[in-house]
Structure formats: structure tokens, C-alpha cells
């Protein structure tokens, strides 16, 4: 039994929750050397009432050119939710008659509020601030995380949070925290850090990890997510690690709800198995969850209906011991954090898919010792997310939190209200947590309805049906003038309806294409190109961008974790995003895709494919798009 397992057993024998493990042996050399910023340490003294601050290099807030920050924002009821469980009706009310109306939010110049966690004003939010985040927003995120999202984390004291500039920033800081730079030819191979992930992975992670010299180590995955047992599964990779190839990986990256690109939702059972192996081999789990609220409870049922299959057996989401207070949040598959007895989970959240990517705002949830290190990293890198965004999001989710009707905040609201219609005046407030959850439910509803529509169209076009006169040998009466027809069904692609997220992950059956393995003459000097999987897959992507199809999808090779995956499997897949196009274009885009694929299978001239491949840039990607192309790949790297 290794040290980590024995620690855990001893602690779990007691009744009280165990303290999280000390994971400082995983810190990078840079992290170990990071000291608190002397200036940021002094910030707490800035808050002393009446203090005249001559210490900080702060510009005077009177000279900020913004007197208020204001926005017309959606009401939480703008979108109609979908049911939390198949066959139910939505728990929240559907959209009200004025759901399209906006609410008006105002961040005033100076709020008359002594509690920094309630004071939302231009004077503080546009000033230098705390590295952990703007106090009102940080305290709301902390409360939402600890009370509503991760109310059951099994270690003593529960997790803490720190704000980031989005999940990309969160992962970059995680690498800074845990990974020492490794350079080939300079450092010893046995020191090379490794990152465990699925064979198909959100591309940006690779772009972030590889320049640090990190070796990306893939773990076999199946339709239910990362495999634990069997050859190539997690246990096999870690137990049989060959140290001559690098250090045994101490870090895992995964997306468990609506995986990008595969759309898988990892079950709690699988999470428990993965967690146990990570605990045994002392691996830190980075759970990146931008799609957390987009879990589609109807997907399995609708998939069976669309395919004429028997209804699936109803699955129940394991319940937390303590309710979040919101049936919608309770209905989501629990996070790795709910199993995290050791404190080895670092979870990345973002406002990118729930508010807007341009916010560049998110947060990290982890055990407090790790959060403290992240704060130190924030201090000397981004310092804090943008004040404009922190101010507007604070106002949006916290609403009119300052008490009394004569506060500057209220006065600013009243002044504005005079100019607006009575209906808008009535809607003059922020959302609060219940409004935030209602917003999330509505988003899930809109995306779930889109995925159902798109997948039905994709199902209908998945097989090419052709008819031809049956061969003479198979006819019962060869002399009859009525030739019976032979029907051929050619599978073009197969897919599983996504259980969450924003993507459909299609497996193409290019081996059924008439030009599969055909020789394609290139230049007189070079040998002919063979139209294999990678060539046909690339040609199909370009073909779809031409008239009359005009759709852009992302190919699996873009998400392949390494060259081996790219060569063996990457070309078999295409990722289709059903989120980016306007509602009215979802059916059109799916229909054009289906038609484009079907017509591609009718191409029998190698010259057509050769020309399509000539359109690709040196990187193998489409360089210029025709006007009017609907993007189902959007953005390719996201
Ligand atoms: C899995 C995953 N992580 C992170 C991101 C980016 O998040 P952020 O905008 O917060 O950096 C994306 C965006 O597509 C994503 O799919």
C-alpha cells in the first residue's frame, strides 16, 4: 500500500471529514519560490474606514472617465427551460409574457456601503484590487460554489475559489502551479512531465501544455468516457509506466460534462473508478467544465425514438446528501469534487458559455492550499480579471444589494428609471442566485431543443439508400421483363446523440466511399496520392464549404491528442457544433450537411478530390471561406 492510500484509510476511519492532503510535493520549482506580493498584502489596510492612503500607486478614482457602468441585460426568464428528467415538465415556469424585456443594471460611481463584499461601484471596481477577485463577486462565486454547486465536497472545510480570466487562464495557471519546464537535450528524459487525457481533447490544452515540454499521454476511451481497466486504460498506463519515457504523469486533464469534442457525460460510477486510480498513483485531476449546465436529460430517450429503438432504461442521477436548493442543479451529474477525499481535484469554471466568452472571467475551485498558490500566481500575472467585467457581472448576479432607497446606487437607478417606460422601470434590478440558476436552466433548454432537432436530421441522413436492377443470377424468373430492384444501404456516418455540451461527434464511414484507396495523380514528379482516410476526410471538409452546401465543420484530426491518434483515428471523425448558428439556421445547417455528405459519396472522379485537397493550406486546414458558409465547426479551436 503506498503512502497516499494509507493516509487516506487512516483518515477515513474517523467520523469527521478528513483534511485535504498536502500536495506541495507536486508544486513546480517556480511555485515553491513564489512569495506573496508585498503590495497586495497591504491591500487589507486600504479598507480601514477613514484611512488616508499614501502607500499605493493608485490613480485617483475621480479621474476615471466613467461615472457609471450601465447595461440593458436579459431577464433570467428569457429562455424556456427543459425538464430535468425525461417525461417530466420543466420545474421552473416557462418564459413569462415579457421575457424578452430587459432589465437595467447600473454600477454607480461611488456606493455608500462600508462592507467591501457588498460595495459595487466604479470607484472600487476600476481600481487595483485583490488578486483573488473583486470582493462582492468573489464572495458570491464562493457562496454559489460552496452552497449550490459543490455543497458536499468530502474534505474538511470544503474548497475555496479564486477568480480567473476564464478557463484557458485557469489551465495556464495550473501548469504554472504544477509543471516544471522541460526541454529536450537540456533536461533529463526521466524528468519529463506528463499529462493524462483522452485521445481526443480540447485543442487549446495541447497548445498550452506542449511548449512546457509536457508529454501528452493518452488513455483509451470508449463511448462512456476514459477507460479505467484493460489494455491502454488508466490503470494499465500508470501501473506499467516506463520511466525511460519520462516521469509517470502526475496530472490528468478531463472535461466530464459535455466533453469537447465527444459530447460524453462521464457517469459517477466511472468517476469513482478514475478517482480511485488517481488517488493510488497520486495524480491531480484537472476538471475543466465550461459546459457544466448543458446536460441533456432527454438525449437517450429522443435518440431511441428517432432510431425506432426500445426506450432506454431510466437512469437516475445520484443525489448529494445535501440539496443545492435548486432541482436543476441537483439533477446534474456530480463533479469529481464530490468524490475528492484527498483534495486532488482542481476544477475550472468559466462565464464564457453562460454569459459570454468576451468576459474573460471564470474561477478555480480547489482545496484552500492550492487556491492560495493560485492567488500568488494571479498577483504576478493577470493581477485580477478586468474591472469592467467584474463590475457588470457583480451587478447582474447580485442586483441591488445595497440597502435603503437613498443610496447612490438607488439614486442612479431612479434617475435612469425616469427616462424609461413603466415596464422597464419595473424590471430595474439584478438577478440574484435564483435568477442566475433560472438563466442557466433556460440556456440548457434552448440548447437541448437545438440538439434534438439537429440530431433527428442527422439520423435521417446517416445512410445512403440506392437502388439498382437486381443481378440476373438473383432473379427467380430471369426471363421476366420486370427486373426487381436491389436496395443497397451504405452507412455514411454513425454517432451517439450528445449527452451534454455543444457538439455532435460523428464517425464517418469513409471506407464505403467509391474512391476509397483510389490512386490520385498529383504532379508528374511525385508519386500518385492514395485517397486514404485522411485525404478523403480533408476533401470532405472542403467540399462541404463549397456551394450549395456552405457549411464548415471541424475534423477529428484537429482534436487528436498526438500524431498516432491523428493518423489512426482523427480522420474518422467530424465535430459539429449546434450552438453557434442562429436558431433559425440549425435545421438549414444540418440539412445542408446531410446533403453535402450524401453528394460527396456520389463523387467518382479523382480529379474532383484532387482539386478539393489543393484548397487546403499548408496546415491542412481551410484557409478562406466562401461567403455565406454556416459554421458548424465554430471556432475550430474552441
Ligand atoms: C473544454 C474547454 N475548455 C475551455 C474552453 C475555453 O474557456 P474560456 O473561454 O473560459 O477560456 C473551451 C472553449 O471552447 C472548452 O471547450
From TrEMBL:
In what ranges is there compositional bias, type Low complexity?
A: 89-101, 314-323
Q: Which family does it belong to?
A: Belongs to the class-I pyridoxal-phosphate-dependent aminotransferase family.
Native species of this protein?
Answer: Chaetomium fimeti
Q: What is this protein called?
A: Pyridoxal phosphate-dependent transferase
Q: Where is this region: Disordered?
A: 75-101, 304-323
Q: What cofactor requirement does the entry state?
A: pyridoxal 5'-phosphate
Has keyword Repressor? no
Family matches, as Gene3D superfamilies: Type I PLP-dependent aspartate aminotransferase-like (Major domain) (3.40.640.10)
Which Pfam families does the UniProt entry name for this protein?
Aminotran_1_2 (PF00155)
